Amino acid sequence: MGNLDYGVIGNCQTAALISKYGSIDWLCFPEFDSPSLFAKILDNEKGGSFGFEVADDYSVNQSYFRDTNILNTKFISNEGSFEIFDFMPRYKTGKGDDYYLPAEVYRYVRYLSGNPKFRVIYEPAFNYARESAVHTVTNDYIRTSSNISNKNSVYLYSSINLDSIIKKKIITLKNDQFLLLSYNQKLIPTDIERVYLEYSRTKVYWLNWVNRSKKYDKYNKELTRSLLILKLMSFEPTGAVLAALTTSIPESLGDVRNWDYRFCWLRDASMLIETLIAMGHQGAAKGFIFFIKRILKSKGDTFQIMYGINGERTLTEEELPHLEGFLGNRPVRIGNGAYNQKQNDSLGYLMDVIYQYYIYFPGTLDEIEDMWEIVKNISLTVCAEWHNPDMGIWEFRTREQHLVFSKVMCWVTLDRASKIAHFLDKPEFAKEWTKIAGEIHKNVLERGWKEDMQCFSQSYDNNEYDSSILLMEAYGFLHADDEKYIKSVRSLKANLLHNGLMYRYNNEDDFGNPKSAFTICSFWLIRALYVIGEKKEAQTLFEELLSHSNHVGLFSEDLDFETKEQLGNFPQAYSHLALINTVKLFSSEIKRSKFLRP
Q1: 3-state secondary structure (DSSP) of residue 446
Q2: Residue whose C-alpha is closest to residue 494's, from 528, 520, 461, 447
Q3: Which residues contact 357 (CB under 8 A, 6 or more apart)?
Q4: Dist CA 441 CA 444 (whole Å)
């Protein structure tokens, strides 16, 4: 089993990681960033899990039900076979745009053949395993509560004998069964027919959602899986988007780069929303714009690089020393101290999305005016800050630098802001922002280009290579045929590509030199090679990179240069949005009749 051989289920409220062998090893209830109920992924002994134990002669295969976020795990042996359909309910209620998305996990156990046998392993561990579980068995359910607070509880419903579950007795399967883990007590009876109805409604929702997506003539399977994962990582109640579903999966084994990614970074979320817009899902972008308006309630509000998924501004970081960590890699952290960092690049991505908001789906007059105030606020911030050092896209923790890519994204901010001003017939703002954007552009060309490197450097004050420079073309700062851009792409490839994968940079930072490949940077190189005309090499690198996904097509943040195993928090929005954008490079959109699309 690889490091991150997990499938993911979710419903835009919370999500679960399910191992290749059908064990739920990560689940936070009732929301993505709530304390964990199962965290075996962070401590094999204490973390808690919910799975099935079978004899050693069973083979186990896992895959997604096509075009859905329903996960199927098959258990097959000579004595018999069965399969598990895991899902979290999500579907429209019939009342406008309201969705049914409870904090629930359904495990639909389908009998296939023979006399298969298994034990149910149900071992919750509340609050990141800081609190133990107390079970109370009733006629209808198992109520499991924390030993610290009886109010903190979950309910397990099942057609399997509840006492057999608690005592881990061997169960011989004769017909279809179910297990339903719910954060709340159910008010209506749950039986196998009800479970099948929830399964069918959820399946139809995901099939319809995928059908509304743009299709391409190549790599549709990979593209669709990435789209489904990105959708799953959006938080329906507020419109926030998570960077990843986990915390403290190390960027490299034996290192200390273990962070909590269950938050909404403006950078990651803006890139993700831009990708969903391009794929035909404008509704997700609307939700994110709503989130931005919600966290900026007044003109005086300052911008952070990241927020909690409910708009929280304080994301205090702490370590959990009682957990051994992923594969023994400590520390385990919750919260993220980067929330108060200064990263001048982050507002560029946000302004890029706001620009698309105005172009594609502006709202009512009051909404447009509200957004215009945000545009002015962002622009004023960038005009005042662009010439200052910052910590940048890679979140250096103890040093501020004049990072080239931060300057580029400041240019993006004012370039898009000036376009919005023209759109709204505000020429005085457009003129001022265009002028300052020009100053930034000139400054980067003069101070960022290093002739001896034949490349733009990481910062004005060093001669280090940095993969973020590859994005100069993607954001329109330089054209693909610009000589300095072409030289930069080739220099970056020569200095950062290793074993077919890219470093984000290879100079020392706060924690030493990076040891793993940052997955999105490999996608960036592929795009850059493609646009400068080196299409065959780009295609070869892309095919190789796709082969490094896990068994169900998912990518984490990082890859090991030697083993190609997944590392870092998982699944990573960054990696999957980059995959989608790369597919669009190599493929042609399939135009379908409007009569074929509901």
Answers
A1: helix
A2: 528
A3: 285, 286, 289, 371
A4: 5
Q: Are the C-beta atoms of 216 and 590 separated by less than 8 Å? A: yes
294, with CB counted inside 10 A (0-12, 13-18, 19+), is middle
Q: Residue 598 pLDDT more than 60?
A: no
For 344-372, the pLDDT digits (tens) are 898 999 899 889 888 877 778 888 888 89
Neighbours of 326 (CB within 10 A): 25
Of 227, 216, 271, nearest in space to 68 by CA: 227
Give the confidence band of 2 by pLDDT, cuts at 50, 70, 90. low
Sort residue 460 into left (φ over 0), alpha (ψ -120 to 50) or beta.
alpha
Question: Can you read off the two tokens belonging to residue 435?
Answer: 């002028």
Q: Convert the pLDDT of each residue in 57-106 to its tens digit.
A: 999 999 999 999 999 999 999 999 999 999 999 999 877 778 999 999 99
H or E segment to which residue 530 belongs:
helix 519-531
* Residue-level pLDDT at 591: 66
What fold characterizes domain 212-589? Glycosyltransferase (1.50.10)
Closest-CA residue to 375 (of 426, 341, 339): 426
Residue 56 burial by Cβ neighbours in a 10 Å radius (0-12, 13-18, 19+): exposed
The token pair that represents 203 in the structure block = 């399946």
d(CA 26, CA 19): 9
Write phi, then psi, for 57 (nearest 5 degrees).
-85, 0
Task: Give the 3-state secondary structure of residue 65.
Answer: coil
* 442-467: b (≥16 Cβ within 10 Å) or e: ebbeebbbbeebebbbbbbeeebbbb
Q: How far apart are CA 29 and CA 12, in angstroms?
A: 12
> Residue 493, CB half-sphere, CA atoms under 13 Å: how many?
20
Q: Where are the domains of the chain?
A: 6-210, 212-589
Q: In this predicted structure, what is the pLDDT of residue 597?
A: 44
Class of domain 6-210: mainly beta
186-213, pLDDT tens digit by residue? 999 999 999 999 999 999 999 999 999 9
Mean pLDDT of the 147-164 span: 96
Q: Which helix or strand (DSSP H or E) is residue 449 part of?
A: strand 449-450
Directed axis angle between helix 282-295 and helix 266-278, to 10°? 150
Give the C-alpha separation, 67 to 65, whole Å.
6
Q: Give the pLDDT band (50/70/90) at residue 592.
A: low
pTM above 0.85, yes or no: yes
> What is the spatial distance between Cα 200 and Cα 198, in angstroms, rounded to a whole number?
5
Asked if 393 and 341 count as a contact pair (C-beta separation under 8 A), the reply is no
- Please tell me the distance from the alpha carbon of residue 498 to that of residue 506, in angstroms, as a whole number: 11
Give percent above pLDDT 90 in the chain: 80
- Which three-class secondary structure state does DSSP give residue 414? helix
Contact 8, 16 (CB under 8 A): yes
